[in-house]
């Protein structure tokens, strides 16, 4: 997901990646696969140019109570959009 946002990442092997920066990230439609990856893409989306949409953010919210409100309290432009399914 970070690569699709413009990050310069090279996967060296299953245990190592090489990240070259700084790089200007761009907004993307993203999907949280797990809590650690999810918080990483939320942070990346906050610094990316444009508006990102992050799906399946519930996996992050299970581990970080009131994550949206906490980021808003720090001045982040972030909001929760209710699912079309419910």
Automatic annotation (TrEMBL):
Pathway: Cell wall biogenesis; peptidoglycan biosynthesis. Pfam families: EPSP_synthase. The keyword Lipid metabolism does not apply. GO terms for cellular component: cytoplasm. GO terms for biological process: cell division; cell wall organization; peptidoglycan biosynthetic process; regulation of cell shape. Its EC number is 2.5.1.7. It is found in: Cytoplasm. This is UDP-N-acetylglucosamine 1-carboxyvinyltransferase. It comes from Candidatus Woesebacteria bacterium GW2011_GWC2_45_9. The lineage of its organism: Bacteria, Candidatus Woeseibacteriota.
């Amino acid at each position: 997901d970070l690569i699709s946002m413009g990050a310069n990442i090279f996967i060296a092997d299953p245990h190592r990646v090489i990240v070259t920066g700084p790089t200007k990230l761009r907004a993307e439609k993203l999907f949280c696969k797990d809590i650690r990856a999810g918080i990483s893409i939320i942070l990346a989306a906050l610094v990316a140019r444009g508006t990102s949409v992050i799906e399946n953010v519930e996996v992050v919210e299970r581990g970080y109570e009131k994550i949206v409100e906490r980021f808003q309290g720090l001045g982040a432009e972030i909001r929760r959009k209710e699912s079309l399914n419910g």
